[in-house]
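We modelled the chain as a single entity of 215 amino acids. Its sequence is:
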Amino acid sequence: MIRRWLTLLFMTAIAIALGVASDAVPAIAGNGSVDYTHSTTLKKDSCPVYENFPKNGVPARSWTKARRSPNGTTYHVGVRYTYKGYALILDYAAHGDPSWGFISRDCLRDPRAYDAQQHPLPDLKAIGGKSQTKAVPVSADHAGKKKGALIHPTSVGTLRSAPRSFVIGNVRPGDPFYITTAHCGHHTAQTWILGYAPKSGRWGYVEALHLPACQ
């Protein structure tokens, strides 16, 4: 954990030192893996960052992101992809999870995502493995699957479009999470479990480390 946050602070320092919106800054994601995001700053004094994509039926859980720190340092955030007027960002300065969230594109100086050659990307496109541009699913593939047992996370975790893939939301302790089987079974903490997250309005994968019923 200490090593993870030292790395995060190091990458944040790089983002601040660069100070330009055209730089792609590698940043530490909520699960400790490295993701490439496009560094930019806010153009408003503060904006809400939503834990899940805002839509009807989804609680508007958010945190406030300020443009500057109390000592006047300009904060940077990393754009991962865009969707319907919002950008999924990584809050470089977040101390703990959630650190990924959705912010209005109107809040950002440069709200675009870019490919490996620094070309702007359309909605739901982002850099994936081997720096290839890939489509971002808004919900995990669950063809042939049905809601099974209801379980609950006991810690904050990201909801992913596939194991170790794109962040599409977040879960909090006590949130309902419907898996696709009658029992989750026993898995390693790093196993990704498919289920439906009503608080996100999405099917997605959550790491078993957040789901005691799956350990």
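As a brief sanity check on the tokenised model: DSSP finds one helix and 17 strands in the chain. The first strand starts at residue 24 and ends at 28.
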